Amino acid sequence: MANNFRMIAKTLYGFESILAKELLDLGAMEIKEGNRMVSFVGDKGFMYKANLCLRTAIKILKPYESFRANSEEELYDNIKKLPWEKFLDVKGSLAIDSAVHSDIFTHSQYVALKAKDAIVDRFREKFGERPDVDLDFPDLRINIHIEKNFCNVSFDSSGDSLHKRGYRSATNIAPINEVLAAGMLLMSGWDGQCDFLDPMCGSGTIPIEAAMIASNIPPNLNRKEFAFEKWSDWDEDLYEKIEESALKKVRDFHFKIKGYDKAPSAVMKAKENVKNANLSDFIEIQQKSFFESEKENEGYLHMLFNPPYGERLEIDIEEFYGRIGDTLKQNYPGTHAWFIATNFDAIKSVGLRASRKIKLYNGPLEGRLLKYVLYEGSKKKSKQKD
């Protein structure tokens, strides 16, 4: 227990409770939900496991120091007096990310610059030389978060955002973030116990995340590196044990996962990404227009997709979303269809009543994750299954 410490998992708006459940299932302690974050307690091995296995986390931060700062000088002095040489070699490199919600500090990049100055000035005074700044592959990535006059300094154990799983070498014009895809799947109740379809799959992110959830494959298995691998206490043997243990929990999947897209270029990219994720045995990608498709399986079908929303792809919104509603109603009985929409006029054009509407963001755009239940036969009979 003495080796346990508090950590923070950052996430997207609306996924806090999903992430908290993921942490609970992994074995985290003292879980507390916040705004776009969940704090928890675990040891170094658990920090490795969180980075490897959490589907809805963007970063895992290890808090280092907190203090109040009412001016730039106070911020500089407080950061400069911390013993950075314990964590970073003078010939090493650092990068600083910052987020500010404050009337005193109004520019996050300026805060990052001031913090960098404080750290390198300490090294220069102590050793006569200073570490470099490397924004891409630093030895130590530092995170600074300021709320009003309260400053939290943390070590970023993840490095690149955890949505960068490592399988996506090809993207289409409007790719969906992997963490958003995984969160929507978990929110929709997807558990791999039936057939799955993404009828507008683009570069294949949603089917890939669906297959990894169904088979309980760690989402970040394909990543090239995590930031903690450059830390002075990096324990490769421990990480390998954690990875081995996670792989033992991979389970069989006995249903079909399909992705359709009408664009040949998207289909090619999706197939390449599926192959990169080593999931070609689980996922079938087909060139097909959703509007010319119909349900192919006998039993219940789970559908989740991210239709175009007119920001980057030119479409007639009302007509397009009207056709989505018609296709679902006429061709997909016995289906629970979920999709994210960021155009609220588009939602009205679907012509079906959503049984659930959940507020989410797709990048900077506010949207709704919508659920439509398409009944097979009479509504009364289907309610017994529901």
UniProtKB/TrEMBL annotation:
Keyword vocabulary terms for this entry: Methyltransferase, RNA-binding, Transferase
Gene3D superfamilies, alphabetized: 3.30.2130.30, Vaccinia Virus protein VP39
Stored CDD domains: THUMP_AdoMetMT
GO molecular function: RNA binding; rRNA (guanine-N2-)-methyltransferase activity; rRNA (guanine-N7-)-methyltransferase activity
Top-rank taxon: Bacteria
SMART domains given in the database record: THUMP
Annotated ranges, domain THUMP: 46-157
A Pfam family hit: RlmL_1st
Protein name: Class I SAM-dependent RNA methyltransferase
Organism: Christiangramia aestuarii
